[in-house]
Amino acid sequence: MWSCPSLLDDVGVDLEGGWAQNGKVRLSQTELKPRNQQSQIGILCPVCDAQVDLPIGGVKALTLDHLAMNDVMLENLHGEGQGLVCDLCNDREVEKRCQTCKSNLCQFCCQAHRRQKKTSYHTMVDLKDLKGYSRVGKPILCPIHPAEELRLFCEFCDRPVCRDCVVGEHREHPYDFTSNVIHKHGDSVRELLRGTQPRVEALEEALAQIKRVNSALQKRVEAVAADVQKFSEGYIKAIEEHRNKMLKQLEDIRVQKENSLQLQKAQLEQLLADMRTGVEFTEHLLASGSDLEILITKGVVVERLRKLNKVEYNTHPGVNDHISFSPQEKAGQCHGYEVYGAINTKEVDPAKCVLQGEDLHRAREKQTASFTVLCKDATGESMGRGGDNVHVAVLPKDKKDSPVRTMVQDNKDGTYCVSYTPKEPGLYTVWVCIKKQHVQGSPFTVTVRRKRRPHLGVFHCCTFCSSGGQKNARCACGGTMPGGYLGCGHGHKGHPGRPHWSCCGKLTEKSECTYIGGQSTSTSLLRTVAL
After folding, report:
1. Where is the protein situated, by its record's location annotation (predicted)?
2. Of 106, 118, 355, 500, which shows the fewest CB atoms inside 10 Å?
């Protein structure tokens, strides 16, 4: 990174003191101190944003970018020299350039340059003739001895110097002409450049990969966005179509129910009119007719009234207003999309609901018992959906103020699984209600027995086999074997002829143990289990 005084002037750097006021130059401390007490000041490059520490000499000690100054000069030359001023008077525009001393001169200074004896032989070139040149920079002068050009290189200080420097500050330092040392120092720079170029290529490749990935990312995002848009549009279309179907279904239900109500209304109105006519005629006959007229008309009147009384009619509306919408209910697929929401006209009838399950009337203490509630409508048809409020209460008959906690699981298909865990044996009353009405079979009684006793022995074919031939192993079946064996054996006395439990002698593997015995017998049975 290179710096120049003009750039630092623009960002507010004091050329004498070397400290910054604004721009991209920052201080390493908040308050200024004398030079001998100040911490090192850093400035930020406006191009690469890298921090450069100012040398002790301040901004003036920074290395000048002579290549950049040469490029600026060429750029001004290509622009017909506009903006260039004379290097001597710093006032008039440049017209010529001295190729010997590398100075840009105005017309007046050029004439004076030729009149002076020391510079009369210098070669002067018109400014327009320099446009094809690649270098038009000025000679690089020593910053300590401005009248001397930097032609030597101090190897000890690793910096270019002039003739006055080597006889002064660099008197005992090894030095040589720049043309003689450029090969060595140029080769070291080139070697370092060769090590840096692969990194540049790697970074360029990394940036290219990032660009490719970013491009692929954009394309992928656009593709996914298109898929989302397509899916959303399809889903919206499916939902709208399902909505229209449900609205049409709702309208059909309304028409059907209204037609049924209108038909029932017309029938009841006609029957009411017939009855009123018959009643009014009969009342008028009885009130105004003579005895003979009543007796003559009696047969017709009685027959009419009897027919009217025999007509069957329903005093309750034939249909109800029960229509509900279940948004969570699956409604199948529409155009390949799963849709939800259904119109329901069924209404659960508690009198038609039934209870099912093996544990309906029996349970065991501290073991979960369950049964199923099957909900049906007034026609006895299964509801086929969930959502009904099923209330269950399990109450001990002797402790009705201590109900058992129950769980009701909605299976979403018109059935409900009820589970509970009684803590003590005894009789319990179970209430199952829907819409504050008992279902069919409710309330009912459940007998809770004590917890099933596990078997202490083994389910074996005989004691000889299960104990590995131990003589003192016993079996509750009572069988024995010759030779001092206390347990049973195949084909010997007392053997039941089939597998059984050694602890209680029961022949069913999944059964409750009924063993009740003394400590000694129990010990021998437990030994059989262990073996």
Report:
1. Cytoplasm; Nucleus
2. 118
